Amino acid sequence: MSHATVQRGARNRHPSLVGGVLLAGLILCLAAPGLAQSTKDTPDKGVPDKGVPDKGVPDKGKAEPKAPAHPTFPKLTVVSKSPETEQMVQLINTKLEEGWKANKIVPAGYVDDHEFLRRVTLDVIGRIARPEEVEKFFKDPPATRRSLLVDRLLASEEYAIHWSNVWTNWLLSRTGVFGHGTYHEGLNDWLKDQFAQNKSFDKLTTELLTASGKNTDNGAVNFILAHVGEAVPAGRQHEDGQFEMVPVTSRITRLFLGTQVQCAQCHDHPFQNSLKQNHFWGVNAFLRQVQRVGQPPMERMRGMAYPMLELKDNTDVNPQAVVFYEKRNGVILEAKAEFLPSGEEKRGTRLTNGAKGVDRRAELAKLVVEHDSFGRAYVNRMWGTFFGKGFVNPIDDFNDQNLPSNPELLTALGSSFRNYGFDQKKLIRWMCNSHAYNLSCVANRTNDKPEQEVFFSRMLLKSMSPEQLFESLEVATKAGATADAKTKKENRERWLTNLVANFGDDEGNEVNFNGTVVQALLMMNGQDINDAIKAKGGTVEAAVARGRTADGVIRELYLATLNREPRRAELDKIKEGFRLRIAEKDKNAPFNDLFWALLNSNEFLLNH
To answer: DSSP letters along 251-267, please?
Structure first.
């Protein structure tokens, strides 16, 4: 199912209504619209729903009013050790509210507590919540539990694991010999350490761009080593360096400045008046003394031992820091090492005369993190990751014809991100405590058009990334709970190989990730998921073994997969179906089928 289809189908419906799951026997009831109601509905008597009610969504049984009323947002308290958090949250709320009023948009109401818990857990640590975490969440006071949860997740060890996975994919992509295996793991391990330290993003970027040494000692070198590009002919290497360094030039500006400078490689940028062809090659010239020692294997050798590689700088080559490039008319020109203009500048900063070796890359890193776009690009990328869209879309394509939807807010957040030391956790805390992040995904007639999505008056549905899906399945099924580290790693690699090959994004762009029919077939018919459902000591067997009633087992399965309890209508229909299978010898079979249906439901597969 494409992202666009999901969004169009979201009006006045929860993701559990979108599409549906075709099941045999009793589980067919789960696809019925009468059962798969929105979590914003008032729960049926007998099954408590402890969430915050969504007062801004019209009752589905009544005609939608011509002018939806602005919802009253619950008074939730921001609890944080960071004194600026409340001020920054208010800034976000105020600027977005101004956009809603200017465009005559009525925002969705607040999502309930169960759905918020699942959403923020997925976004911050990369998996759904465990049942015991759901219980802990609801023990906190209602007014502070959301804010307390955000801080708890940011302090979790899994925060570093999740964001190292995300950034490894952004830096290396998922394809080629650097997209998996030893080189991928080396950078991932290095990033994990940086996120565990909460390394400021400017320092993290600087260390990536200036990394040197063997990749067995310093995983950070794998970023540049992965994107050196074509080798320069031997006869030209003294003047031009060992590699053309074209891919890494493009990737640096895309990832850290939100600028697709590759559009100026062969001609002046068609959509950015200030970006000329000489600017691409000017940035490229900073990198021409990079040298790689060792040869990575060919893609067809995947799975074999990867040789050690070393990144260093050869000060004997490209002594003038000049690169020659060809105009479309065939004229050959030279570009000296010069960075992109910033702000109102017409010329970028040139490389210091005499700078050579790693000093060239150190100057490049300094110019990147000091550039006017550095903070804004990071904010836009992270906003797009948490909200499904950035202020600028695509998130890495700032240009004169692709302006931000809320420029004042983007600029303010970028400046504050810089002023508060490029602290990545602070930015996440600001976003997750805002009204916009707490909103339901259910649309109304004022905000259900694609062009209105950039005003963030409702949460957009997001498909899980392959990593999020794997980790969430592990949590839900308890698959591998007793396995050793080696077995867990092998299981993860096998799962991700299948998931990425079938429906992953080769460029690592989780924001644009789309599910497919192949994904659905893989989930519904895959042997791995069926084995996990029936596993000894798994979720179903453990729930049944505790001697719970049918209601109790069903409740455990819902909490394990959807992080909520079943509604009364769901419970009644499931138990009615169970009675039709009373003669079955395997007492776990009905629960296995129910568990399978929940894992294949849109409510599980989507981050809403």
So the answer is: HHHHHHH---GGGGSSS
Question: Rounded to a whole number, what is the distance in angstroms from the first to the last CA of the chain?
Answer: 15
Residue 311 host element (H or E)? strand 310-313
Among candidates 312, 356, 363, which has minimal Cα distance to 338? 363
Rounded-to-10 torsion of CA 371, 374, 377, 381: 160
**Which pLDDT score, from 0 to 100, does residue 495 have?**
73
Measured from the Cβ of residue 111, the count of other Cβ atoms closer than 10 Å reads 26
pLDDT 10s digits, 204-244:
999 999 999 999 999 999 999 999 999 999 999 999 999 99
Euclidean distance between CA atoms 240 and 246, whole angstroms: 12
Task: Please tell me the predicted confidence (pLDDT) of residue 499.
Answer: 66
**Helices and strands in the chain: count of H runs, count of E runs:** 25, 7
Low-confidence stretches of the chain (pLDDT beneath 70): 1-67, 264-275, 300-304, 480-483, 498-525, 581-584
- 456 in a domain, yes or no? no
CA atoms of 92 and 409, how far apart (whole Å): 7
User: Could you give the percent of the chain with pLDDT greater than 70?
Assistant: 80
- Domain containing 310 equals 204-376
Give 464-474 pLDDT, tens digit per residue. 888 898 899 99
- Taking alpha carbons only, the member of 13, 385, 331, 346 closest to residue 166 is 385
- Reported as half-sphere exposure (CB side, CA atoms, 13 A), residue 394 has a value of 13
- Counted domains in the chain: 1
Q: Is 273 within the bounds of a domain? A: yes
Contacts of 139 (CB under 8 A, 6+ apart): none
- Decide if 247 is inside a domain: yes
pLDDT, position 527: 77
- Helical pair 145-154 and 424-432, crossing angle rounded to 10 deg: 160
Using a cut of 0.85, tell me whether the model's pTM lies above it. yes
Q: How many CA atoms lie within 13 A of 126 on its CB side?
A: 20
What is the rounded CA–CA span in Å between residue 134 and residue 148?
13
Residue 305 belongs to some domain of the structure = yes
- Exposure letters 579-588 (e unless 16+ CB within 10 A, then b): eeeeeeeeeb
Q: Mean pLDDT over all residues of the chain?
A: 84
Q: Please list, in sequence order, all residues whose beta carbon lies within 8 angstroms of the beta carbon of residue 406, skipping any fewer than 6 positions away.
A: 95, 96, 99, 391, 454, 455
pLDDT of residue 80: 82
Q: Which 3 state secondary structure label does DSSP give 292? A: strand
CA atoms of 222 and 231, how far apart (whole Å)? 17
How far is the CA of 395 from the CAs of 254, 259, 377, in angstroms?
9, 9, 8
Task: Answer whether 58's CB lies under 8 Å from 443's CB.
Answer: no
| Long-range CB contacts (within 8 A, 24+) of 547-552 | 550/575, 550/578, 551/575
Q: Which two tokens stand for residue 28?
A: 């067919």
- The interaxial angle of helices 145-154 and 113-125, nearest 10 deg, is 20
